[in-house]
Design a protein that fits this description.
Blueprint lengths: L4 H29 L4 H5 L10 H19 L14 H16 L13 E4 L7 E4 H26 L6 H5 L3
Antiparallel strand pairs: 1-2
Helix pairs in contact: 1-3, 1-4, 1-5, 3-4, 3-5
Length: about 170
């Protein structure tokens, strides 16, 4: 059985971004119910040298849109990283989901062998096949940031579990 890179990426991004949206909604509700300043959650870090929750969500969205766009040979949209609230993060997730939903599955045909060049023309330039790009780089990066977002909120006492993390499938 052959699985297309579209099937291995876009539906996965959609599902996990849906779960991330649900987790953030629970965190926002938790803050409201307990009269906790939402910024306390948005600035959470697992360790001082790691990004806070806001940045974790931004990067998860960035990987979902950039991996999908590159595989479909579409332009990667550039978005400002100016989210400062749970509502802002929800809007970014929704915009990401809308963008990747708008990519035609047919545009992913042949993407497994297509060369993907990261950071072209720099000392950090990396060339990967589409398959290696999504399976060895894109999905692991995406999952790292989604998982870290979940872990930050769970550690802060938000009542969430694996079912919330997984989203609807």
């Amino acid at each position: 059985m052959t699985v297309s890179l579209y099937a291995a990426s876009v539906p996965v991004f959609q599902q996990m971004l849906g779960g991330l949206s649900d987790v953030l909604a629970k965190a926002s509700a938790h803050a409201t119910e307990r009269k906790i300043d939402p910024e306390a959650y948005l600035k959470l870090r697992l360790f001082p040298d790691m990004f806070p929750l806001v940045r974790q969500v931004q990067i998860a969205c960035d990987f979902a849109k950039s991996v999908s766009a590159r595989l479909a040979q579409a332009e990667v949209p550039a978005w400002e990283d100016n989210e400062a609230s749970f509502d802002d993060l929800q809007a970014r997730i929704a915009r990401t989901r809308d963008f990747i939903a708008g990519l035609d599955a047919a545009a992913f045909e042949g993407a497994d062998a297509r060369e993907i060049v990261l950071r072209p023309g720099t000392p950090k330039e990396k060339r990967l096949t589409g398959q290696a790009y999504v399976l060895a780089y894109g999905l692991p990066q995406f999952f790292f940031h989604v998982t870290t977002s979940y872990a930050l909120l769970r550690h802060a006492g938000i009542e969430i579990g694996k079912r919330d993390f997984m989203g609807r499938y």
